[in-house]
Amino acid sequence: MPLRLPDKLPAIEILKRENIFVMDNTRATSQDIRPLKIVILNLMPLKITTETDLIRLLSNTPLQIQINFMKLKSHTPKNTPIEHMMMFYKDFEALSKENFDGMIVTGAPIEQMKFEDVEYWDEIKQIFDWAHRHVTSTLYICWAAQAALYHFYGIPKYDLQKKMFGIFRQYPLDMQLPIFRGFDDVFFMPHSRHTEVRKEDILACEDLSLIAESKDSGVSMVMARGGRDFFITGHLEYASNTLDKEYKRDMGKRDDVELPKNYYKDDNPQNEPLVTWRAHANLLYSNWINYYVYQETPYDINKIG
Asked: Are 69 and 54 a contacting pair, CB within 8 Å?
């Protein structure tokens, strides 16, 4: 939670430049509190697993958060019980009448398809456009990041010669951004994808800011609209065993399966995974909630957009 300090205390501006979360008395006394509304568009096949991964990270804040789950009307999931979907998820049509403080759009196992060939592409575009008007800040993850970059800015995706699979070092490019408050000079991020967006395309678009990258896995994080949109190409939300399950699932079923890099202790799949990304995952989601949602969203949620 923010530190509440006397008005005009010199330390306030100094701490703000260091990305320390503070507010003066004038702001604190005029600030009303209500639960933050976060909507999650979960496109992953194993929806319960993804829900758990994201809620684990969103719970790492003292703020009260109300979670809503959105589903597509143009796609029926095959790996989640229909009873679960009916009980916990609502169609976009039902939720589109509301505003939300934050939104998360997950990846989907369709990255090698052309965007226009995806059965729910028209609905996804409609949701992306709606989010720009009805959500204070949105996180787009993996395929969703590629799809949103393509939809809004025409950024193409490219096939990789082999799957980007493992844990890779990432480097923040602007440590003054609040999203990186408390970060080290290097952090680790899981990746599992067959396609990529390229640095030169991001840099050529003046509306986009490349804010983190990797020498091995390339573009890591892109920001737009002053933090109202974040595009993350990896999976900081992954649990410790996610890549292990994926690797063992695909072994013997595909001819392009390689050991996930920098994942198992001593690179031995008989050993437990070495978790190196959990702390920064919690930090990134907390920073997003605190700085780009809580600090930016209006108290009257109807004023969003």
From this structure: no
Straight-line distance from the first to the last Cα atom of the chain, in angstroms, rounded to the nearest whole number: 25
Task: Return d(Cα 76, Cα 136) in angstroms, integer.
Answer: 28
What does the pLDDT read at residue 218? Answer: 97
Contact 262, 166 (CB under 8 A): yes
Given 111, 196, 237, 280, the catalytic residue: 237
DSSP state of 260: P
d(CA 136, CA 97): 15
Residue position matching structure tokens 């009303």: 32
280 belongs to the catalytic site: no
Catalytic option among 51, 191, 213, 235: 235
Q: What is the pLDDT of residue 27?
A: 57
297: phi then psi, degrees, rounded to nearest 5: -75, 145
Catalytic annotation, pick one of 51, 142, 213, 280: 142
Q: Is 86 helix (H, G, I), strand (E, B) or coil?
A: helix
- Amino acid identity, residue 256? D
Q: Which single residue is written with the structure tokens 């990432």?
A: 170
**What does pTM read for this prediction?**
0.89
Short-list 59, 45, 108, CA closest to 235:
108
142 carries an active-site annotation: yes
User: Which one, of 61, 279, 63, 57, lies nearest residue 182 by Cα?
Assistant: 279
3 state DSSP class of 92: helix
Active site residue 51: no
The two three-digit tokens of residue 247, written as one number: 């690797």
Query: For residue 137, is it left (φ>0), alpha (ψ between -120 and 50) or beta?
Result: beta
What are the per-10-residue average pLDDT scores of the chain (305 residues)?
A: 52 60 54 80 88 85 85 78 84 95 93 92 97 98 98 97 96 97 97 96 98 98 98 96 92 80 95 96 96 93 89
CA distance 194 to 162: 7
- What's the confidence (pLDDT) of residue 5? 47
222 — phi, psi (to 5°)?
-130, 145
